[in-house]
Every structure is written in structure tokens, then in C-alpha cells.
Amino acid sequence: MQAQLIVCDRITHNEQVKGHQLGTVLNHQMIPVLPYALDLYILLKIFDLPQGKSIDTHFEFNNDRGERLGKTAMTVLRNYRADDQIPGVDKDFALTLVLTEPGIVHIKCFADGEEAAWYPLTIRLQEDELQKTSSTG
């Protein structure tokens, strides 16, 4: 089994093409104030999933010090692909993460209790960026 994460500012499920339309893919996010409630959208792609098997998945969010910032409830996923495709599933998630400091948030996906994929998201405080710009200009 292989897993991939993509974090965006929005994800829309398109029934006509049976797929997902992604907004802006995020590597960093500027926030105006702390604490801040950040809406995130995650596309989880799992492939090479054994036929007929379901997996329990959840996300955990940690800071650079390894402290947990949040955790989602368990979601059960199974293969929904046609017989002529590699078995797997694409699932989008919408969640809100409360941030209390800038830095890197490590978004980890767990499948059946094992870490399957992770994604780094850098959080920058707008005030800090303004200070950097004014001190260099």
C-alpha cells in the first residue's frame, strides 16, 4: 500500500468527472494573528490497496518539537476503483486546526496504526514577515 497527501486551501469533489478539483496547493500559509483557526483541505490518495480490504485512517498534527496539535477521528476506507485500475481510494478531508505559534506543522496520515504519509506545512505570522521586510528595506 502507498499513500500520498496534498494539502490545499480548498478541494471540490466533481461528480461529473468523478474526481477532485484542487485549489491552491499549500507549502506555507501566512496567518494574521495567534491563536488562529486555519481551515485545511487534505487529499489522501491510497493505491495498491489489497482487494477487499478496508483500512482505518486518521491524521495527526505535530509541531517541530513533536508536540501534538490535533488528531482526527478514525475513517474507514476501502477500494472503490474499477477492475482495470490499481486498487485504491482518493478521499478528501476538510478540517480546522487551531494554531498557537508559527513554525512547521507535520501532518501525518496513519493507516491501520502505521504512519503511511506525511506533509510539512510552514506557518508564518504576518507580523513577523512585515518586520523582516521593514528591517531589510
Q: How would you portray this structure in words?
A:
- The chain is mainly β and 137 residues long.
- The protein has one helix and eleven strands, in the order βββββββββββα.
- The protein has one helix at residues 126-136; strands spanning 2-8, 11-14, 19-22, 28-31, 36-47, 54-62, 68-71, 75-78, 88-99, 103-111, 114-125.
- Strands 4, 6, 7, 8, 10 and 11 form a six-stranded mixed beta sheet that branches. Strands 1-5-9 form a three-stranded antiparallel beta sheet, with no helix packed on it.
- A hairpin with a 4-residue loop joins strand 2 (11-14) and strand 3.
- The chain is elongated, with a radius of gyration of 17 Å.
- The N and C termini lie far apart (50 Å).
- The model has no long low-confidence stretch (mean pLDDT 91).
Provide key terms for this protein.
mainly beta, single chain, elongated, 1 helix, 3-stranded antiparallel beta sheet, 8% helix, 6-stranded mixed beta sheet, 137 residues
Secondary-structure blueprint of this entry?
Layout: E1 2-8, E2 11-14, E3 19-22, E4 28-31, E5 36-47, E6 54-62, E7 68-71, E8 75-78, E9 88-99, E10 103-111, E11 114-125, H1 126-136
Parallel strand pairs: 4-11
Antiparallel strand pairs: 1-5, 2-3, 5-9, 6-7, 6-8, 6-10, 10-11
